[in-house]
Amino acid sequence: MKKINTFWNWFQDNNQTIKNLINETPKNQKHISFWINKNLSYYCKEVDFMIVYPKTENGKFELILTANGNPEYFNQVINLIDNAPQLKTWKFIAFIQPTERIEEIMKGLDEPYIFHEMTLKASELTFLPLEYHELSHKVDIVVFLKSYNLYCDTKTLQQAIFIIMQDILGEKSLYQNINFVQLAQVPENKEGLIQLYDFQLFLDNLNGVELNNYFLKMWETVR
Fold first, then answer.
1. How far is residue 139's CA from residue 133's CA, in Å, rounded to a whole number?
2. 75 and 138 within one domain
Protein backbone atom coordinates (compact mmCIF):
# COMPACT_ATOMS: atom_id res chain seq x y z
CA MET A 1 0.00 0.00 0.00
CA LYS A 2 2.90 2.34 0.72
CA LYS A 3 4.18 2.01 -2.87
CA ILE A 4 0.69 2.71 -4.23
CA ASN A 5 0.37 5.88 -2.13
CA THR A 6 3.87 6.98 -3.12
CA PHE A 7 2.99 6.81 -6.82
CA TRP A 8 -0.33 8.64 -6.49
CA ASN A 9 1.20 11.34 -4.27
CA TRP A 10 3.85 11.93 -6.92
CA PHE A 11 1.20 11.93 -9.68
CA GLN A 12 -0.95 14.50 -7.86
CA ASP A 13 2.08 16.75 -7.34
CA ASN A 14 2.97 16.57 -11.03
CA ASN A 15 -0.37 16.15 -12.77
CA GLN A 16 -0.37 19.68 -14.23
CA THR A 17 3.01 19.05 -15.86
CA ILE A 18 1.76 15.71 -17.20
CA LYS A 19 -1.39 17.35 -18.62
CA ASN A 20 0.80 19.78 -20.55
CA LEU A 21 2.97 16.99 -21.95
CA ILE A 22 1.53 17.29 -25.45
CA ASN A 23 2.58 20.96 -25.67
CA GLU A 24 6.18 20.35 -24.63
CA THR A 25 9.22 20.02 -26.86
CA PRO A 26 10.14 16.44 -27.85
CA LYS A 27 13.06 16.61 -25.40
CA ASN A 28 10.80 17.63 -22.49
CA GLN A 29 8.16 15.05 -23.50
CA LYS A 30 10.80 12.35 -23.28
CA HIS A 31 11.93 13.66 -19.89
CA ILE A 32 8.39 13.75 -18.43
CA SER A 33 7.55 10.29 -19.82
CA PHE A 34 10.75 8.95 -18.30
CA TRP A 35 9.69 10.11 -14.83
CA ILE A 36 6.18 8.71 -15.18
CA ASN A 37 7.70 5.34 -16.09
CA LYS A 38 10.28 5.66 -13.34
CA ASN A 39 7.70 6.30 -10.63
CA LEU A 40 5.45 3.53 -11.94
CA SER A 41 8.41 1.13 -11.84
CA TYR A 42 8.89 1.82 -8.13
CA TYR A 43 5.45 0.25 -7.72
CA CYS A 44 5.70 -2.45 -10.44
CA LYS A 45 8.09 -2.60 -13.39
CA GLU A 46 5.56 -4.50 -15.51
CA VAL A 47 2.85 -1.83 -15.34
CA ASP A 48 2.81 0.63 -18.24
CA PHE A 49 0.71 3.69 -19.05
CA MET A 50 -1.08 5.57 -21.83
CA ILE A 51 -2.40 9.13 -21.68
CA VAL A 52 -5.47 10.09 -23.70
CA TYR A 53 -6.10 13.80 -24.10
CA PRO A 54 -9.65 15.20 -24.02
CA LYS A 55 -11.40 15.93 -27.31
CA THR A 56 -13.35 18.83 -25.80
CA GLU A 57 -12.32 21.77 -23.66
CA ASN A 58 -14.19 20.44 -20.62
CA GLY A 59 -13.28 16.80 -21.16
CA LYS A 60 -11.14 14.77 -18.78
CA PHE A 61 -7.60 13.56 -19.29
CA GLU A 62 -7.35 9.77 -19.14
CA LEU A 63 -4.52 7.79 -17.58
CA ILE A 64 -4.77 4.18 -18.74
CA LEU A 65 -2.69 1.69 -16.79
CA THR A 66 -1.86 -1.55 -18.57
CA ALA A 67 -0.09 -4.83 -17.85
CA ASN A 68 0.67 -5.13 -21.57
CA GLY A 69 -1.54 -8.20 -21.66
CA ASN A 70 0.37 -10.12 -18.97
CA PRO A 71 -2.27 -11.65 -16.64
CA GLU A 72 0.34 -12.14 -13.90
CA TYR A 73 0.19 -8.38 -13.32
CA PHE A 74 -3.55 -7.74 -13.77
CA ASN A 75 -4.02 -7.49 -9.99
CA GLN A 76 -1.28 -4.87 -9.72
CA VAL A 77 -3.10 -2.73 -12.27
CA ILE A 78 -6.46 -3.19 -10.52
CA ASN A 79 -5.03 -2.38 -7.07
CA LEU A 80 -3.38 0.78 -8.36
CA ILE A 81 -6.56 2.01 -10.05
CA ASP A 82 -8.72 1.08 -7.02
CA ASN A 83 -6.61 3.43 -4.91
CA ALA A 84 -6.43 6.30 -7.38
CA PRO A 85 -7.20 9.79 -6.06
CA GLN A 86 -10.26 11.80 -7.05
CA LEU A 87 -9.05 14.50 -9.44
CA LYS A 88 -11.58 16.68 -11.28
CA THR A 89 -9.69 16.76 -14.57
CA TRP A 90 -8.53 13.13 -14.62
CA LYS A 91 -10.11 9.74 -15.27
CA PHE A 92 -8.12 6.65 -14.28
CA ILE A 93 -8.74 3.45 -16.26
CA ALA A 94 -7.54 -0.13 -15.73
CA PHE A 95 -6.43 -1.85 -18.94
CA ILE A 96 -6.69 -0.91 -22.60
CA GLN A 97 -10.41 -0.87 -23.41
CA PRO A 98 -12.21 -2.13 -26.53
CA THR A 99 -12.43 0.41 -29.31
CA GLU A 100 -15.46 2.72 -29.45
CA ARG A 101 -15.26 2.62 -33.27
CA ILE A 102 -16.86 -0.82 -33.54
CA GLU A 103 -19.74 0.45 -35.74
CA GLU A 104 -17.24 1.90 -38.21
CA ILE A 105 -15.42 -1.43 -38.30
CA MET A 106 -18.68 -3.35 -38.85
CA LYS A 107 -19.50 -1.08 -41.81
CA GLY A 108 -16.00 -1.43 -43.24
CA LEU A 109 -15.35 2.28 -42.73
CA ASP A 110 -12.41 1.79 -40.36
CA GLU A 111 -9.01 3.30 -41.03
CA PRO A 112 -6.30 0.75 -41.86
CA TYR A 113 -3.50 -0.10 -39.45
CA ILE A 114 -0.09 0.49 -41.00
CA PHE A 115 2.82 -1.58 -39.69
CA HIS A 116 5.99 -0.87 -41.66
CA GLU A 117 5.24 -2.45 -45.08
CA MET A 118 1.89 -3.96 -44.00
CA THR A 119 -1.56 -2.41 -44.27
CA LEU A 120 -4.33 -4.27 -42.42
CA LYS A 121 -7.99 -3.48 -41.76
CA ALA A 122 -9.78 -4.83 -38.68
CA SER A 123 -13.02 -5.12 -40.66
CA GLU A 124 -11.39 -7.64 -43.01
CA LEU A 125 -10.17 -10.04 -40.31
CA THR A 126 -12.13 -13.24 -39.77
CA PHE A 127 -11.55 -16.24 -37.51
CA LEU A 128 -12.55 -19.78 -36.62
CA PRO A 129 -12.17 -21.49 -33.25
CA LEU A 130 -9.79 -24.45 -33.06
CA GLU A 131 -10.16 -25.80 -29.53
CA TYR A 132 -11.70 -24.90 -26.19
CA HIS A 133 -9.64 -25.48 -23.03
CA GLU A 134 -11.97 -26.38 -20.18
CA LEU A 135 -9.47 -25.72 -17.39
CA SER A 136 -8.51 -22.22 -18.49
CA HIS A 137 -11.82 -21.44 -20.28
CA LYS A 138 -9.80 -20.12 -23.20
CA VAL A 139 -10.11 -20.65 -26.93
CA ASP A 140 -7.49 -21.38 -29.59
CA ILE A 141 -8.38 -19.61 -32.83
CA VAL A 142 -7.21 -19.18 -36.41
CA VAL A 143 -7.28 -15.63 -37.75
CA PHE A 144 -7.63 -15.39 -41.53
CA LEU A 145 -6.04 -12.60 -43.57
CA LYS A 146 -6.56 -11.78 -47.23
CA SER A 147 -2.88 -10.89 -47.49
CA TYR A 148 -1.39 -13.67 -45.35
CA ASN A 149 0.51 -15.24 -48.27
CA LEU A 150 2.05 -11.83 -48.97
CA TYR A 151 3.13 -11.11 -45.39
CA CYS A 152 3.55 -14.60 -43.91
CA ASP A 153 7.35 -14.24 -43.66
CA THR A 154 7.09 -10.83 -41.98
CA LYS A 155 8.30 -11.00 -38.37
CA THR A 156 5.91 -8.30 -37.17
CA LEU A 157 2.73 -9.89 -38.58
CA GLN A 158 1.82 -11.82 -35.41
CA GLN A 159 2.49 -8.75 -33.28
CA ALA A 160 0.41 -6.60 -35.62
CA ILE A 161 -2.56 -8.98 -35.35
CA PHE A 162 -2.36 -8.95 -31.54
CA ILE A 163 -2.38 -5.13 -31.53
CA ILE A 164 -5.52 -5.10 -33.70
CA MET A 165 -7.19 -7.80 -31.58
CA GLN A 166 -6.40 -5.90 -28.39
CA ASP A 167 -7.94 -2.78 -29.92
CA ILE A 168 -11.12 -4.68 -30.85
CA LEU A 169 -11.52 -6.83 -27.73
CA GLY A 170 -9.71 -4.86 -25.04
CA GLU A 171 -6.61 -5.99 -23.17
CA LYS A 172 -8.30 -8.03 -20.45
CA SER A 173 -10.81 -9.86 -22.66
CA LEU A 174 -8.11 -10.78 -25.17
CA TYR A 175 -5.87 -12.47 -22.65
CA GLN A 176 -8.65 -13.98 -20.56
CA ASN A 177 -10.43 -15.63 -23.48
CA ILE A 178 -7.80 -16.44 -26.13
CA ASN A 179 -5.06 -18.98 -25.54
CA PHE A 180 -3.39 -19.35 -28.94
CA VAL A 181 -3.67 -17.56 -32.27
CA GLN A 182 -2.68 -19.13 -35.57
CA LEU A 183 -2.64 -17.11 -38.80
CA ALA A 184 -3.73 -18.35 -42.22
CA GLN A 185 -4.77 -17.24 -45.69
CA VAL A 186 -8.51 -16.72 -46.20
CA PRO A 187 -9.85 -19.95 -47.79
CA GLU A 188 -11.77 -19.98 -51.06
CA ASN A 189 -14.85 -21.16 -49.20
CA LYS A 190 -15.58 -18.34 -46.73
CA GLU A 191 -18.83 -19.83 -45.45
CA GLY A 192 -18.82 -20.12 -41.67
CA LEU A 193 -15.98 -17.67 -41.07
CA ILE A 194 -16.70 -15.27 -38.22
CA GLN A 195 -15.79 -11.59 -38.26
CA LEU A 196 -13.18 -10.84 -35.61
CA TYR A 197 -15.23 -7.90 -34.34
CA ASP A 198 -17.94 -10.46 -33.45
CA PHE A 199 -15.65 -12.46 -31.13
CA GLN A 200 -17.42 -11.36 -27.94
CA LEU A 201 -20.80 -12.18 -29.47
CA PHE A 202 -19.39 -15.58 -30.43
CA LEU A 203 -18.38 -16.21 -26.80
CA ASP A 204 -21.75 -15.10 -25.48
CA ASN A 205 -23.53 -17.55 -27.80
CA LEU A 206 -21.53 -20.58 -26.69
CA ASN A 207 -23.44 -21.07 -23.43
CA GLY A 208 -24.61 -24.65 -23.05
CA VAL A 209 -22.91 -25.85 -26.24
CA GLU A 210 -20.59 -28.88 -26.32
CA LEU A 211 -17.74 -26.67 -27.43
CA ASN A 212 -15.15 -28.91 -29.08
CA ASN A 213 -17.80 -30.78 -31.13
CA TYR A 214 -19.17 -27.39 -32.14
CA PHE A 215 -15.71 -26.32 -33.32
CA LEU A 216 -15.31 -29.46 -35.42
CA LYS A 217 -18.62 -28.80 -37.18
CA MET A 218 -17.52 -25.24 -37.98
CA TRP A 219 -14.29 -26.48 -39.54
CA GLU A 220 -16.19 -29.01 -41.65
CA THR A 221 -18.13 -26.10 -43.13
CA VAL A 222 -15.07 -24.40 -44.63
CA ARG A 223 -13.23 -27.54 -45.81
1. 6
2. no
115 and 212 belong to one structural domain: yes
Domain containing 78 equals 2-94
Residue 61's nearest CA partner among 51, 69, 70 is 51
Tell me which of 94, 118, 142 is where a domain ends.
Answer: 94
Residues 107, 215 within the same domain: yes
Using alpha carbons only, what angle is made at residue 214 by residues 210 and 220, rounded to the nearest 5 degrees?
A: 155
Percent of the chain with pLDDT over 90: 42
Residues in the chain: 223
| pLDDT, tens only, 29-71 | 999 999 999 999 999 999 999 898 888 888 899 999 998 888 8
From CA 48, how far away is CA 58, in angstroms rounded? 26
Q: Please tell me the predicted confidence (pLDDT) of residue 189.
A: 87
With a cut of 70, say whether residue 123 has pLDDT above it: yes
Chain mean pLDDT for the chain: 87
Q: Quick check: pTM over 0.85?
A: no
Torsion from C-alpha of 155, 160, 163, 168, nearest 10 degrees: -150
Task: Looking at the structure, tell me whether residues 200 and 115 fall in a common domain.
Answer: yes
CA distance linking residue 151 with residue 187, whole number of Å? 16
Count the domains in the chain.
2
